[in-house]
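Researcher: Here's the sequence for the chain we discussed earlier.
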Amino acid sequence: MNFILEMSDRKYVVDNDQLDIIQGILDDCEIFSSEYNRSVGNADSFYTNHVYKQESTEGIRSVNCISAKTLVMARLAGRKKD
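Model: Thanks. This is the structure I predict for it:
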């Protein structure tokens, strides 16, 4: 079975084995964020970096099944031409 995996602003087609590997990798990762801090009073604005243990797999926005027929048709269509 194949899946459409959405991460950030991109979608990927993966099979069940690939999805398991990606999920396993992400489960063991920590989250990194760079947070903007606005100036207060006369102080300058600045960024702080944060690393923390994730509560769930936050990197994957969604996983949806894609039928074999739809996958074949999408591969035949290829990249959309402008």
